[in-house]
Amino acid sequence: MHDVIIIGTGAAGYTAAIYTQRYGLNPLLIGETPGGTAVNAYKIENYPGFPEISGMDLMDKFRSHVESLGVEIVDARVEEVSEADGVYKVKVGDKEYQARTLILAVGTVRRKLGVPGEKEFDGKGVAYCATCDGPFYKGKTVGVVGGSDAATMAAILLTQYCPQVYLIARGDKLKGEPIWIDRVAKNDKIKVILQTNVIKINGDKTVTSVDLDKEFAGSKKLKVDGLFIEIGAEPASELAEQLGAKLNEGRRIIVDLDQMTNRDGLYAAGDITDKTGHFEQIVNSASQGARAAYSSFQYLKDKK
What we know:
Elements: E1 2-7, H1 11-22, E2 28-31, H2 55-68, E3 72-75, E4 80-84, E5 87-92, E6 95-104, E7 108-110, E8 126-127, H3 130-133, E9 141-145, H4 149-158, E10 164-168, H5 178-185, E11 190-193, E12 198-203, E13 207-216, E14 219-223, E15 226-229, E16 233-235, H6 238-242, E17 266-268, H7 282-303
Parallel strand pairs: 1-2, 1-6, 2-3, 6-17, 8-15, 9-10, 9-15, 10-11
Antiparallel strand pairs: 4-5, 5-6, 7-16, 12-13, 13-14
């Protein structure tokens, strides 16, 4: 029996693990994707202490810190969670773990474009992580769908490998941090296509082109060798629903200022919560993870 199980190995989960271990609890950290969505950021310039670092490198440092404290980590997908008589049960494969408190730091999952060809060419020209898959497109032409920071950052990164990058956004202008928009504007390898949607992805064995809903350069067909989809993410709220945690209209977990949900002993932290406030930043997730850890510590102390 653990004092606390933390589900999610991103910034919030790693931080919660560090703090709960330091509070003398015996945390178990479980997560399917080491580093979470933060590893997709090829360059981070606003995390204190690191003027410039990749998301993957920063999350590696988070994990190394957790490991240095001796926290047990299980790299696996949680299939089912339940609670009975004050005990939380977490099922991973054929194993079941139990704890007195549970912290959900499961973050978000990439939003799909939902057009014909997306599913068929997933991994065959359709990608969702420029940091992970960018090197495979060296010397090729690619498109990026999206108009916010994730999309502009992906486009900038891809110019390191690709001679031509099309940034396709449905809005009439790019959104997000001005510094990234400015870098896009100054990069000759990036061509921005505004007020346009990708409505179909074409190919044979791999992606060869996309169909647009309006003409660009005299055609509604745009030749690309790959398409990176960067249109945001959706909260991974399935486990919260299994436990009866209250969600807001956006399916994020409702928590109070102590990261407590409507269920005793159940806390949530990071991008999965309603306290994100459209500010999905690593520093914010880490802060919530630390607060959730403290709250679980206080809860267990009061129980004793």
